[in-house]
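Incident log, support desk, overnight shift.

02:14 A customer reports that sequence design results differ from what the structure should imply. Their input is reproduced verbatim below. On-call engineer (initials T.W.) acknowledged and began investigating.
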């Protein structure tokens, strides 16, 4: 029997075929999960094209900055999944380009608010709405994506690093509060991947090359490795794991430089 046979998953944050969210979707689908994707209006075409590659996948518009759109997305999810949900994937992050280009000390109030709202608060907003649907299934799994810059200085990651630190802290508090309902909340800290978001960070290519040289496995990771880790966290194989940040970075995080 497949690991996720009969499970229902809602994925936020797919932008194109390079997205980590898409890699996770493929891994979940390979083990029998029924999927739903959300998309921002500007990404509708790309997300729907990807959804068509996995039979039975449905899509809804949603910008996580707006509570009414989140409410509508969950209402549609409840309609499609009969009020039940097993898996929530949060692969959402954004900061204005200027906040990643200018020195961190020049971070603006508006830029800080935008980065923290979209990249961190949205996890809380989504978890709050997912929880009742997961309780109807006797529990569930929530997975988000983070990065080592939450712990160490990565030049030009700037306010996004602060947002990832907030996301990881939120993961622990959500895990504590939702644990009594058998809802597990974890984060995956992925190594540098060539995604749309990563391309907006100055010096990304150089850092990716350096990571491959320093990491114990002497290589960079692939999107599919993050997808399969999410599959593990969303399955009963990880039923005793919650509140954790699991590194998938070829071991880079254990090195001193």
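02:41 Re-run completed on a clean worker. Output:
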């Amino acid at each position: 029997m497949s690991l996720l046979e009969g499970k229902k998953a809602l994925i936020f944050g797919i932008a194109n075929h390079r997205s980590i969210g898409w890699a996770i979707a493929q891994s979940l689908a390979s083990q029998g999960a029924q999927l739903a994707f959300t998309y921002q209006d500007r990404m509708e075409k790309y997300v729907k094209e990807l959804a068509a590659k996995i039979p039975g996948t449905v899509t809804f518009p949603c910008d996580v900055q707006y509570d009414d759109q989140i409410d509508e997305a969950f209402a549609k999810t409840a309609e499609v999944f009969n009020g039940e949900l097993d898996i929530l994937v949060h692969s959402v992050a954004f900061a204005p380009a200027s906040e990643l280009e200018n020195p961190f000390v020049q971070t603006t109030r508006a830029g800080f608010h935008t980065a923290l709202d979209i990249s961190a608060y949205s996890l809380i907003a989504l978890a709050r709405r997912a929880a009742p649907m997961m309780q109807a299934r006797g529990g569930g799994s929530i997975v988000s994506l983070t990065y080592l810059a939450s712990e160490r200085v990565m030049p030009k990651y700037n306010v996004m690093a602060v947002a990832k630190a907030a996301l990881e802290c939120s993961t622990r508090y959500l895990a504590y509060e939702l644990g009594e309902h058998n809802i597990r909340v974890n984060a995956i800290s992925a190594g540098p991947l060539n995604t749309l978001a990563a391309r907006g960070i100055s010096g990304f290519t150089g850092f990716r090359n350096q990571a491959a040289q320093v990491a114990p496995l002497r290589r960079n990771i692939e999107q599919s490795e993050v997808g399969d880790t999410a599959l593990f966290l969303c399955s009963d194989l990880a039923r005793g794991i919650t509140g954790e940040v699991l590194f998938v970075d070829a071991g880079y995080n254990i090195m001193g430089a």
